[in-house]
Task: structure prediction
Amino acid sequence: MGRFWRSGVAAVLAAVLGAGAALADGVVNVYSSRHYKYDDQLFSEFTAETGIEVKLLQGSGPELLARMQAESANSPADVFITVDAGMLWRAEEAGLFQPIRSSVLEERIPESLRHPDGLWFGFSKRARVLIVDPAQIDPALVQRYEDLTRPELKGKVCVRSSSAIYNLSLLGSIIANDGAEAAEAWAKGVVANMGRPPEGGDIEQIRAVAVGQCAVAIANTYYYVRLLTSNDADEVAAMKKLQVVFPNQGDRGTHVNVSGAGVVAHAPNRDNAVKLLEFLASDEAQVYFAQGNNEYPVVEGVAPTAAVVALGQFKEDPINVAQLGENQPEAQKIFDRAGWK
Ligand SMILES: [Fe+2]
Result:
């Protein structure tokens, strides 16, 4: 009945105002740097439930951010979805988000996984872990991020470039926990132990461990799960020989980050944007949002994929992810001083 009435009202408005004006009530424009297999299904489900059409524009985080800045107040963007708190912070710094108060979002999403003023919200969670080859080193040697600087690991550490936002956020978490001086000492220690200059993404680091070029890599959990569940039997066999170590279980916990979204400052369809964010926090959406990329749902009680569950439970660093972004400029300076390419 509810949907009938909404359609009815839309039809009357269309007749009175012309299709364009009426359509604007039934649309939400999404700029997204996520492109995973269940995302389309997720948006279709939202449309089926609300009657609101989702218009999706995909691109990389930096591309979409630049586009929104160029479009300024004329941007059609209502919602910006991106990965990593660091990228959310860049959008926040550019003034691209507006604060949203929503009891649904505030109740369902843990406080540490959303912006304190509601500028953005985390909808799935990823852990940055160590991938270890136990045939090369005893995993007991690498139980903390700090262990990566141990002299025994000289020439054995593989990690991607310091410009990668995942590493900027990880270092941001070390700055927050241990201070800038300790963070710099850590970065220098990791550089001293690198098995090769940084090249490629997290996937390449994991493969480098599998082929013995390094003994330990830093990577987000979903990259490992992606390789572990691939259709390539050799790849799967190689992954099964490696171990996932969730670092810092005896102290602050493993560094986690989010895929997140916020309502754009000049959103022409603000209410629809809020509805979409609230939908993304629902149990059913959480399942799909996390599954598409083998991430962890942020809402308590929603299970990740079986392959992710099999990695085991872990203690996570409780720092608010918003702080990772705030520490980003300092993290970049530290990486540069440490010579982390
Ligand atoms: Fe990624």
Residues 1-24 have pLDDT under 50 and may be disordered. The first strand starts at residue 27 and ends at 32. The chain has two domains: 2-125+257-304, 126-255+316-338.
